[in-house]
Amino acid sequence: MPIAIAISATLAILSLAVIFGTDMSVAVVQRAVYRELDDRTMVRVVGRGHFYGDRRFPVIGIGGTIATAATVVLAFVGVSPLAGTLAAAGLVLLLIWLALFATIAKPINAVLTAAADAGEAPSDARALQDRWESIIVPRAILLGLAIALLCATLFLV
Fold first, then answer.
1. Tens digits of per-residue pLDDT, 100-129?
2. CB 122, CB 128: distance < 8 Å
């Protein structure tokens, strides 16, 4: 059982680390770059990024979520309530991240992707981007903490 837990936690960590790294990159670097661009260029760059990200990241995110949930179950069953609780706390943080993404980021992604495809810059493009960016630091923190909790779970295996 410890091997199964280690495998599921490691897969979860690796998957979530991809998304965490992307969120951190946006929070630390890309936000500053977007502020230097004119609206049309910003919409084109951001919209195209969302076009590809919204098609490629779900497989990674779903895999990480499934691996995290598996870690929770396996840890409760096979190791200890403490390991299970740590993994479950990580899963809760991941689900909060997903809720933020689904309710705030994803709808904005769709608008900016459509605008980029049409070669347009909506009049509220900056406001949309500001709203999207308003949750990027909390999203990065949530994923960072979830990954840390999964790492802590590995110490108990």
1. 999 999 999 999 999 999 999 999 999 999
2. yes
The residue written with tokens 């740590």 in the block is 86
pTM of the predicted model, to two decimals? 0.94
Question: Could you give the angle at which helices 39-78 and 136-155 cross, rounded to 10 degrees?
Answer: 20
For 3-41, write each residue's pLDDT tens digit.
999 999 999 999 999 999 999 999 999 999 999 999 999
Distance, in Å, from the CA atom of 34 to the CA atom of 86, rounded to the nearest integer, reads 37
CA 62 to chain centre: 10
* Contact partners, residue 38, CB within 8 Å, separation at least 6: none
Query: 75-83 contacts: CB < 8 A, separation 24 or more?
Result: 75/5, 75/9, 75/153, 75/156, 75/157, 77/1, 78/1, 78/2, 78/4, 78/5, 79/1, 79/2, 79/5, 79/156, 79/157, 80/156, 82/156, 83/5, 83/153, 83/156, 83/157
